[in-house]
Amino acid sequence: MTTNQRRTLDIPVGDISRPGERRVPGTNTTISTTHQPAGGLSLLAYADRLGPRDYTLALLLDEHRVLTGPQITAILFGSPYTCRNRLHALRRIGFLDRFIPYRRGHLAPVHWVAGPLAARYAALSQDKRPPTPKALREQQDGIVSTRHLAHQVGCNQFFIDLLTHTRAHPGTRLARWWSASSASKAFGGRIRPDGYGIWTDGHRQVSFYVEHDTGTETLATVTAKLVPYRKLRAEGGPGGPALFWLPSAAREANLHQRLAGVSLGGLIVATAARDSVAQAGLGTADAVWRRVGNGRHRLALADLPSVTGDRTGFNPPALTPADDPLRLLDS
Q1: H-type helices in the chain, by residue range?
Q2: What gap in Å lies between CA 193 and CA 242, rounded to an integer?
Q3: Model pLDDT for residues 289-313, shown as the tens digit of each residue
Q4: What is the dihedral of CA 32, 143, 5, 103, to 10 degrees?
């Protein structure tokens, strides 16, 4: 297969000759370069065409950088067809951009990132200066080029599954979803989980850290990730649960074996394996979590102990309505 033939795999059928594409340097991936719409890149010009769902997507992409088409469909739309049409309409006005990373032998799903208008809205809604075109372009290229893209998308999927669960289970809610950078900032840089959330199910509430494991690191490296969490707990900070979201049941069993002799220092640690969870038709909110040092019994996310900090300075701020990632949909 020639190089040119391989490159066409990056572009959806029917979209090969779409104008406004640019190739990200050093990659085999294209991303759109949004043309200046007739009305100009102004939120005012498109206010009558944008709604709460569009603004929600802008805020999610600002916080979590990239979401795939199926992920967006799962939390914001009723069908892939409706979602695809809306996303491409938003792309045409400069609200979103998209790319498809090259995966040898098959097509990856369309990945969506903030375009000029979405980035502008997200910044202004937080009283920040909108990014310049150059800054936005560098941010987009950074998302496409990073070798951690699959890890980022996989970690986001953990929380997407929780949001999907809430659509079918009234009384449940993902009350907070922070990215790695937001979580690290909230905890003063002492820890850097892949994600942080607060889950509620009726009267039960649990705040948790997520470590999304792809199986590429040694178990010694994975175990070492507990050190900063233990230090935070020793300083009076929250004690978890810290959730290790693992690729396979075999890796989960091996990690439990390795952690059997490790002192957790009051830290709550639980694990689940993606292959087992998928095979059982369950999700991250269900009874799939096995606590380290507590046998083989599986608990639902809301049933895991949530250990708060002893000193206010080491705790994240209290929940507010602004923490809800889907808050705009209720307006």
Answers
A1: 3-7, 52-64, 69-76, 80-92, 116-125, 133-145, 149-168, 180-186, 219-224, 226-234, 249-259, 274-279
A2: 9
A3: 999 998 889 999 999 999 887 766 7
A4: -140
